[in-house]
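Researcher: Next entry in the queue.
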Amino acid sequence: MNKEECFYFGRVIKTHGIKGEISIRIDADDPKAYASLVYILIEINKKLVPFFIQSLKNNGNKAYVALEDVKTIEQAMELTNKEIFLPLTLLPKLSGTKFYFHEVPGFSMVDEAMGEIGQIETVLEYPNQNVFQVFKDKKEILIPIRDEIIKKVDRKKKIIYILAPEGLIDLYLNS
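Model: Structure for this entry, 175 residues:
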């Protein structure tokens, strides 16, 4: 399985116990939604290696996991600090104005006041604010990803409707 077909799920943070269990940190809004996982993909030497789960016990955004082929603490130690991925097909379906960052590049962006702005190139993730990167007439426009700005997400037509703060788009276009 290619990394492009997967999403980042978390990281092996340490061993747990002496029988080869691992402790993982889960990067998900609802970690309990993944309580019945059958397998995880751990990145080893730039390749995703599947590991089947024998048991998984959730503890907030952490979980204690026993993997079928990992029976010793030494084997578990080799997995520490490795990234964990899952296939995109395991992502919960979102509705309304919620979306995954990986799904919106290529969507058109339409502002209630300015009309069509352009296509979303990517989502830029900054420490304090995530933004859509959109280009109109070869000029970059950065739109904050905020609930009060995003009015509608039309997945079928691949359009995100927004109401940008007054003057924001003009600021980019007139500079």
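Model: The mean pLDDT is 93.
Researcher: Noted, moving on.
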